[in-house]
Amino acid sequence: MNLKKIFLKDACPMKMGGQAVMEGIMMKGEKKMALAVRLPDDSIRIKTEETKTYGRWMKFPLIRGVVAFADSLIYGMKTLMTSAQMLEEADDEEDELSRLEAWAEKKFGSKGLWNIMLYSSVIIALAFTVGVFIILPTGAVNLMKHVTGSSFWLNLVEGALRIALFVAYVWLVSYMPDIRRVFRYHGAEHKTIHCFENGLELTPENCRQFPTLHPRCGTSFLMFVFIIAFVFHFLLGWPNLALRIITRLLLLPVIAGISYELLKWAGRSDSIVVKILSLPGLYLQKITTKEPDDSMLEVAIVAVNACLDEEPPADRVIGGLVEDGNTEAAGEIDNQQNTETDDNDEDENTDPGGTVPTE
């Protein structure tokens, strides 16, 4: 792994985060969020809206990490569902609603049904995460009490098992065709942000030269979470199973807040300490990012340019590929060069699913 190509010396980190979705990419800047999705007819649908801000909460260390994590969890799921809906709407064949869906839409309305699906998905995702990555590891390692009573070794094995389960899960889902394409769009997102942060014109040719790995990726955030969790769990010793589960759940906001601050620091610094701390996340990104093709890079470019565009938020569809390999959107929206960011302005959001905005 060539860290010089990842921690680019002259790069200027921008306040923009991204997330790969179904056949597209979401980019979130200081003022606007843009979701660009490649439709089956090769056109690109762009949906933009104003970025939600949290004012003073994002100025307090640790607290801003918790706020950003909760926001990204809900907003990330919403964005994934929106991209899937855009693709369904573009399909010529309209699927008939099932009796249950028809009844639910009649009773709660389209918006109400959407909210039910969104928050149900978030609850299911949280339940799966807590069950598989918190309760299962600590419960399984509980059997080792008959082998050793050392809280250090018990916590170390629990932490290692938690990381192994997560890596195995990501590795297995990476073989699913749909997820593999999402990971390729994830790579396109990183390449495009690298290109923008280096002040180059946003074209597939320029983006292609950069790596798919990025120091501010949400994958690295998750690895920070696992590492910091081990430190906190070790300090608490090895109480009974019920108390361990409760304390691990209560510590999640604190761990998320510290992990967020570490990721912000990693995004601004290229010191040897940062590089060492970032290595686990970067190696995991080798699974969660894949090499994109030019059509995926074009979607990422459209998302960045639409996010930076000063026009009011809108929902529009633009044409497919043109002869020079760029999209029509790239012609409609001027490519914008990177500008310096104000190091003192910390009103920002994060997207652990993609690249996290930094100062």
- The overall average pLDDT, rounded, is 79
Sheet/helix structural class: alpha+beta
Share of residues in strands: 5-15%
Helix count? 10
Could you give the order of the helices and strands? EEEEHHHHHHHHHEH
- Using only C-alpha atoms, the radius of gyration works out to 21 Å
Could you estimate the helical fraction of the residues in percent? 55-70%
Low-confidence stretches: 321-353
Biggest sheet record: 5 strands, antiparallel
Main features:
359 residues; 5 strands; 5-stranded antiparallel beta sheet; alpha+beta
Describe the structure concisely.
57% of the residues lie in helices and 8% in strands. The chain is an alpha+beta fold and 359 residues long. The two termini are 26 Å apart.
Please, could you describe this protein's structure?
The chain has 359 residues and is α+β, with helices and mostly antiparallel strands. Helices cover 57% and strands 8% of the residues. It contains ten helices and five strands. Strands 1-2-3-4-5 form a five-stranded antiparallel β-sheet. A hairpin with a 2-residue loop joins strand 1 and strand 2 (24-28). Helix 1 (63-90) packs across helix 2 (99-141), helix 2 (99-141) packs antiparallel against helix 3 (151-173) and helix 2 (99-141) crosses helix 7. The protein is globular, with a radius of gyration of 21 Å.
List the helices and strands and how they pair.
Layout: E1 17-21, E2 24-28, E3 32-38, E4 44-50, H1 63-90, H2 99-141, H3 151-173, H4 177-197, H5 204-208, H6 218-235, H7 241-268, H8 272-288, H9 294-308, E5 315-318, H10 328-332
Antiparallel strand pairs: 1-2, 2-3, 3-4, 4-5
